[in-house]
Amino acid sequence: MTERRAGTTAKAVAVTGASSGIGEATARRLAAEGHRLFLGARRTDRLDVLAEEINEAGGTAVFQRLDVTDAADVRSFVHAARERYGRLDVLVNNAGVMPLSPLDALRTDEWDRMLDVNVRGVLHGIAAALPVMRAQGGGHFVNIASVGAYEISPTAAVYCATKFAVRAISEGLRQESTGDIRVTLVSPGVTESELAEHISDPAARQAMKTYRAVALPASAIADAIAYALAQPPQVDVNEIVVRPAASMQ
């Protein structure tokens, strides 16, 4: 972990999908900034190690098992975060899956999984946290999308559709806010993560290996999230797109 920055206002931050990739990097970065972390994912063994490392480095982190496809589970997660820290300032809706395949492969179970995690998971987070943030007088949603929220590529039609949806949901939430709720959409380009491991289609999996030859470290996305959170209350950073410098997509 990096040294804490002086003058940082500690916030209570809940992160979904925190067991690896962008979620893990975000937890480490925000803990280093002095924020108090509440971490969620299904792989609690990884969360246990992550929370222990953050706490040993002088940060504050606890965790709870979380399945974002289960609305009741998400409500329990948000409730526990608020109970732990007395409030919930930030929810990072990060959990996502990316089992790419051409549409004619008809992998409808994978389409359903992407809709459940990537779209319903974000909606469950909003439904659970929005009343809490309204009641306490403010809060901040950080929703993780993708460059796939702006463009479509072969084998990624359904994945991109889910990220277009996250972008639309985020913008709708921003427009419905009266200034008390901030909303930031962060759209990573190719980033080091375990997402490609969800690809079961052989051709799509091989194509993704080539596509991911140039990739950002997950810490670059964590830096973007930290930037959005660090802005004063009257500043709402709405969209951040982060790509590798050498990427043409």
TL;DR of this structure?
The protein has 249 residues and is α/β, with parallel strands linked by helices. The protein contains 7 helices and 7 strands, in the order βαβαβαβαβαβααβ. It has a 7-stranded parallel sheet with strand order 3-2-1-4-5-6-7, with helices on both faces.
Class from secondary-structure proportions: alpha/beta
Q: In which order are the strands of the major sheet placed?
A: 3-2-1-4-5-6-7
Segments where pLDDT lies below 50 for 5+ residues?
A: none
Pattern of helices and strands: EHEHEHEHEHEHHE
Termini separation: 31 Å
Our Rg estimate from Cα atoms comes to: 17 Å
Mean pLDDT: 91
Strand content: 15-25%
Helix content: 40-55%
**Oligomeric composition of the shown chains:** single chain
Counted beta strands: 7
Overall morphology: globular
Largest sheet: 7 strands, parallel
Describe the structure.
By secondary structure, this protein is α/β, with parallel strands linked by helices. 45% of the residues lie in helices and 16% in strands. The chain has helices at residues 21-32, 44-56, 71-85, 108-136, 157-176, 202-211, 218-230, and strands spanning 12-16, 36-41, 60-65, 90-93, 139-144, 181-188, 239-242. Strands 3-2-1-4-5-6-7 form a seven-stranded parallel β-sheet, sandwiched between helices. Helix 1 (21-32) packs across helix 7, helix 3 (71-85) packs parallel to helix 4 (108-136) and helix 4 (108-136) runs parallel beside helix 5. The longest helix is centred in the middle third of the chain and has 29 residues, at 108-136. The protein starts with 11 loop residues before the first strand and ends in a 7-residue tail after the last strand. The mean pLDDT is 91.
